[in-house]
């Protein structure tokens, strides 16, 4: 592997000596418990003893369940966004976009944000170093602290240019970092700022971060596999020069800090430095994309988690259970503007990252591209007035620069339902409608919007490119 490292957080050129493998003939097994009754009891006393023993087992099981742990096939009403390993590696938490937390193995339940009216969906989380708590973070930078995890600050009141996509904790547990899609870093508590990619013109948005074991540095990873290293974080290689089948969605540091793993939305694994490869879902047809990964404390295994809660365990990582999210039936798609209202091409590239800007007169109605639930956005220095639409297809659609809202946050909308009126609010140089699609990273909307407009077959969201639409 390359030993390239530039001080000050400069990006190093991608390493062509990369490790990417696919596992074949993977068998997934669901853990089950079965009590087999003997075909005959030799005496009434034996039968009574067995009954008493069975009652005791039932009582114990009920007690464990009431402690807050969840078990296999728990139903989640929202997509899973991350998986957090316990300190021992003998369990994990799954976190849904509504802030619900599901606990498996030796993972204790400390609380969740699913009973809170969130301004933006939860996008990530991290364990407290003690193992007795965790933080969750929303796309708006809101922080939710549970157990030993303390609140040290948030970006919820900051006008973000791009949403928060990940976080990492310091080894003391007395601070944390947040990272935005544009590579901006926000430091709280004893977390020090070592640099950011906020002033770099990125080919693809940042999708996650990992801290070094010392807490004196961190890595950022972009959707194209590009790596940005800061502080004592060394560069060991990247997937930036590899033609990816699906975008990278996460990064995990090795326990020594002398390597890291990247995971793509198809479950492909890229190993660098002393990080070891133990398997991937790169050759498996997934029902839903992989959204995150977590490593075991030994560094000899890892878990991948998909949007529907599916868990894939490799190396010394064991399967302890999962939450099951079933996306609602697809309800179709609808064009986002009145026909012929656009004053610019629907295939025009975006100036900065995968997105589409459609020039249109202020006050033009704009519509839900698909069915789902909407959340209002108000970012004067960025998106302006707009919406985030969590689509029934599993994708997240963001509309920006509106002049007027037409639907309240939390409203369930159908395809073609009016959301508001276009405008020129936020960071905008002229009246237009901005739309971006997030599905395991940002996707280029041009082919989807064009197909809907032309009434031709709509491409699958997961097939939309993550590059090639930037000017």
- Supply Rg: 23 Å
Q: What's the structural domain tally?
A: 2
Question: What structural class is derived from the secondary structure elements?
Answer: mainly beta
Fraction in beta strands: 25-35%
CATH level 3 topology of the largest domain = Methylamine Dehydrogenase, Chain H
Q: List unreliable stretches of 5+ residues.
A: 1-72
Mean pLDDT: 84
Protein traits:
single chain, mainly beta, Methylamine Dehydrogenase, Chain H, Glucose Permease (Domain IIA), nine-stranded antiparallel sheet, four-stranded antiparallel sheet, 2 helices, 7% helix
Account of the 3D structure:
It is a single chain. The chain is mainly beta and 471 residues long. The protein has 2 domains: 7-29 and 72-325, YVTN repeat-like/Quinoprotein amine dehydrogenase (Methylamine Dehydrogenase, Chain H, 7 Propeller); 356-463, Glucose Permease (Domain IIA), CATH 2.70.70.10. The protein is 7% helix and 34% strand. The protein contains 2 helices and 30 strands. The chain has helices spanning 44-66, 446-454; strands spanning 20-21, 74-76, 80-85, 91-96, 101-105, 122-127, 133-138, 143-147, 164-169, 175-180, 185-189, 206-211, 217-222, 227-231, 248-253, 259-264, 269-273, 290-295, 301-306, 311-315, 323-325, 356-359, 365-367, 372-379, 384-391, 396-405, 412-413, 418-422, 432-438, 442-443. The strands form 8 sheets. Strands 22, 23, 24, 25, 26, 27, 28, 29 and 30 form a 9-stranded antiparallel sheet that branches. Strands 1-17-16-15 form a 4-stranded antiparallel sheet, with no helix packed on it. A hairpin with a 5-residue loop joins strand 6 (122-127) and strand 7. The model is unreliable at 1-72 (pLDDT under 50).
